[in-house]
Amino acid sequence: MKQALKQTLLLLLCLACLFYSLPAQAASRIDPRLEQQVLQIIRDNPEVIIESVQLYQQRQQQEVQKTRQAFLETLKTNPKAVIGSSPTTGSTELKTVLIEFSDFQCPFCSQAQKTLKPLIAKYQDQLTLVYKHFPLISIHPQALPAAKAAWAAHQQGKFWQYHDALFSQQAQLGEEFYLDLAQTLNLDLELFNRDRNTADTAIEQDLQLAEKLQLSGTPSFLIHSETFSGSIQLSAIEKVLASNE
Hints:
Layout: H1 2-21, H2 24-28, H3 32-44, H4 46-77, H5 79-83, E1 88-90, E2 96-102, H6 107-122, E3 127-133, H7 143-154, H8 159-168, H9 175-184, H10 189-196, H11 200-212, E4 220-223, E5 226-229, H12 234-243
Parallel strand pairs: 2-3
Antiparallel strand pairs: 1-3, 2-4, 4-5
């Protein structure tokens, strides 16, 4: 009986959503008595509504987990397909691949570098770090310009030098800094500027992947069967590395 009520309420919720999503003229033609009946049933059964919403959220989370597991399986069996043309550092043998989704204006991403550098140095024959762009445009106005500049530097083989400077001097992010840094690294400025203007497609691909994996913020890290979000701990990733030896 309770299950039947849940199903009925879900249908009524769908109807309610439909009512309020219709244009004003169409909505005005809906029988007011039916609308009131729907609202009254919802008011009379709040606990079932909560359970239904929780069930929906659980199903959504299960779908996210399936998507991530499929991604991680591809990462294990065909890492080159996941890496694509993204910048990498560390081992070239792809024994263990760590994917980083990061934002050059994110202070937590900058802090994470203090963990990543010794991690890569310690496991340089085993670990490969892959950088994926995840600029949080809505809160970091320089995230996208910085990502474009780093992508342009990558086209001339200087991504990691550019990457390190962006993170170590976050307070300087801006057009003047991007050009000065390019000159410091002896980049071809004409080529650098041209590549910045064509970086959108590559960055958008990374953003779409982050959205597909339902990553909620930066930095986010994926390594084989483990996912870390926020400032990673060397000991936590070392456990994963040890399990793969």
